[in-house]
Amino acid sequence: MIAIAVSAPKITAQTDEAAFLPKHYESIQAAQLQEKAFPANFTPSALALFERNDGAPMSEADKAATAKIIQGLTDKKIEHVEQIIAVSDQTTSKDGKYALAPIAIDKATQQSDAFGETAKKLRDEGKSLANGTDLKFQLGGAAAQQLDQKEASGSADAIIALSSVVLVALIVGIIFRSVLAGILPVVLSLMVAMPTSNGLIAYATKAFDLESTPILSAILIVVVLGVGTDYFLFLAFRYRERLRAGDTRQEAVANAVGRVGEAIASAAGAVTVAFAVLILSSLGMFKALGPALAIAVVVTALASLTLVPAVLTVIPARGVFWPGKKWMHEPSNARFASLGRTVQKRPALVAVASGGVLLALTAGALGYNGTFDLAGSSMPKDKESMVVQDKLVNGFSAGAADPTHVYLTSTGGGKLDQAVFDGYVAKLGAVPGVAEAAAKPQVSKDGVTADFTVLLKNEPSSNAAIDTLTELREVAHAQAPSGTDAKVGGLTAIYKDINLAMSHDYKLVFPIAGLLILLILGLQLRSVVAPWYLMASVGLGFSATLGSSTLLFQNIKGEHGMMFMLPILIYLFVVAIGTDYNILIIARLREEARAGRNPREAAREAVRHGGPTVAAAGFILAVSFATFMLAGNIFMLEFGFAMAFGIFLAAFVMAMFFTPALTALVGKAAWWPGHGGDATGGHGDAAVPPAGAHSAHGLPESAGRR
């Protein structure tokens, strides 16, 4: 860890949405064309909005004051501000109440805090210059939204991270009634696995020229801490169980690794595959996340299978479980023993009830509506950038902040025939959802390319704007004059292409990941039957999570949609990490079956012994994700709820009831063509009794043998 962390190279993250789309998408081609044909043009990073304090139309004196304020801002020579465009008739609302001044900020700052800090200086200086006039100065646009979003979040990120760490340590400590047991998974995950993962990710990013994204660091903490805690619990519960069965400390650790190690390796393999397959994604955001998270899971699994057992072997058991005094005694009336008996006696009822819950929640997914309004969903409406956005809708059109551009290029090498421009503008302006198409397009110096500015009626990130963009593209392409080619670009075009890229990913990434996880399960279980219904339950868990989130936020809370990447985030965390719990339970089911128990008895013992581990791991991870709901905005509220509720379903519905009940119903056929239900099959360890089995004298078998 030390060697890797010290020697790892430094990497820089990207935040530009366009940078995460492949070059074959039209919005990217349009952006490249704009840079070539109109190098002096820019997309405003900020928008200065002027209006009178009394709300009346602006007078000539007000317009003069506006020009003076803009000149004053320009003379300030604020760092990173490249250009401030003066107010004109085109940037003044038709009712004369609002005037806009587009501002260009160095694009390089978008990847740093300087972007928002520049907006803060512009806002402060603009308000200062407006003092003593009848004008109100407000700043909107991307840079102002970043500033307001940061202020709205405040210390939420730190609170989330600290809350996760404290909750993990506290809950694990309560479960084992131990101070050290609560601290160990946090220390081993964040002080060993985390820096090692970061170092290897940096090496891989540099060696294979991978993308990097700024959201990786926050997600990495949750993944490493969550997975690391899960695997620690898998080992610690089995370790304690073997101590109760009479093993020495060294024997208990060896037995725990021998029995649970394969389940951890398989679970890590499934999660790693699920993450790694994202390298096939069309979106750079997920292409960057996938390999990085896969590396983190591999590192965490290796630490769990080597360092954790070594620590448990070195530290006396009384120290690990101190100050608890009853850790050597299994409760006689354990709740999970009762649950296990319920699954044993009524597997059909349990399977129907748990499966019914998942199916009922799945119905809500049919109403899911993705939205790209990340700014609107991540900060209060009274923030200045949001107020400016609303006033743009009233005074201009919602699309005025980020106009759409149609670039018409001559394909024959000659200059464009400008006589056809008026007819082309009329056709673009007639598209439903278009507020205005500029009458006079800008023509490049060589006369080969023309830029037609189109204002949409709806906010650029809205679904309505994306629908308009779809039709606008069709008209722009179909009505392009002979000998020309049309490309439609702008922020809405980028969102449209992200939408197309995600549809591609759903059809490619999900099936490949599913098949690879199916293969891993088949190899672990030596079966071609059990993996299929395990994957079916995972699929139900995915759709039930999306459905429950849709029901809560769209149907009950009344949101018009949820963040567009929610399905992939559910796939990343609920499906990938939630599969761990299914694997742990199914591994215990196979172990009990191979020891000679019939299918229903195996289900009973799996729930009895594996249930506490799954419940603890699932509860801790769900609570960790729930801390994201403390951020105070709808974006994090949706994310936190979906992840927490999805993990809860994976642990407490799928793994605890659905999987063992189905396995009990399928019977020995679940292990076909292997020998999971034959005491003489498998690895030849049939002579080893099931963990916790007792001899005729009432003593643990291992104690009786000694």
UniProtKB/TrEMBL annotation:
Pfam families noted in UniProt: MMPL
Main localisation: membrane
Domain of life where this protein originates: Bacteria
Membrane topology of the entry: Multi-pass membrane protein
Ranges that cross the membrane: 158-176, 183-203, 215-239, 260-286, 292-315, 348-368, 508-525, 532-556, 568-589, 610-635, 641-666
Residue span(s) of domain SSD: 180-314, 539-665
Entry keyword Transferase: no
Localization of this protein: Cell membrane
Claim: Acetylation is one of the keywords in the record: no
Region of interest (Disordered), ranges: 681-706
UniProt entry keywords in alphabetical sequence: Cell membrane, Membrane, Transmembrane, Transmembrane helix
Family: Belongs to the resistance-nodulation-cell division (RND) (TC 2.A.6) family. MmpL subfamily.
Descriptive protein name: MMPL family transporter
Organism: Kitasatospora purpeofusca
